[in-house]
Amino acid sequence: MDHEMHHEEEITLRAPEGTALMLTDVAVEKVKEVMTRDGVKDGGLRIAIVGGGCSGFQYNLSLDESAREDDIIIEQGGVRLFLDPISQQYVYGTVIDYVNGLHGAGFKFVNPNANRTCGCGSSFSA
């Protein structure tokens, strides 16, 4: 009797060359859902890097009614991402995915610049 071994391969998400930040299709739909629920019509999703977390830096997501003067604005699938210049250097090339897992659902960051990430996927060290 032949028993096949099945193992899951981890899919590495990468933003296209020259892209500062990218959402997966699932994440785009989830952001739209949250914006609609919170009544944010013209704003976007602000991505910021803050100190803290189990690996040194932490991602901070929030809805913002409008972009700030020095923001980098990325439009994707009808969703706008606001990124401040300081955070940009830490997240360049990052893909934001939305996952439903055993530990709950949430946005997951796949950051090519992170040397060490924690198990929760929400903090990193550079």
Total helical segments: 2
State the end-to-end CA separation: 49 Å
CATH fold-type name: Hypothetical Protein Aq_1857, Chain: A
Shape: globular
Estimated structural class? alpha+beta
Strand/helix succession: EHEEEEHEEEE
DSSP summary, beta strand count: 9
Give the uncertain stretches in residue-range form. 2-10
Largest sheet: 6 strands, mixed
Looking at the overall shape, the CATH architecture is: Sandwich
Number of domains: 1
Describe the structure.
By secondary structure, the protein is an alpha+beta fold. It has a single domain (21-125), classed as Hypothetical Protein Aq_1857, Chain: A (Sandwich), CATH 2.60.300.12. Helix content is 17%, strand content 39%. The protein is built from two helices and nine strands, in the order βαββββαββββ. The chain has helices at 25-38, 85-91, and strands at residues 21-23, 44-51, 57-64, 72-76, 79-83, 94-101, 104-110, 116-117, 123-125. A hairpin with a 5-residue loop joins strand 2 and strand 3 (57-64).
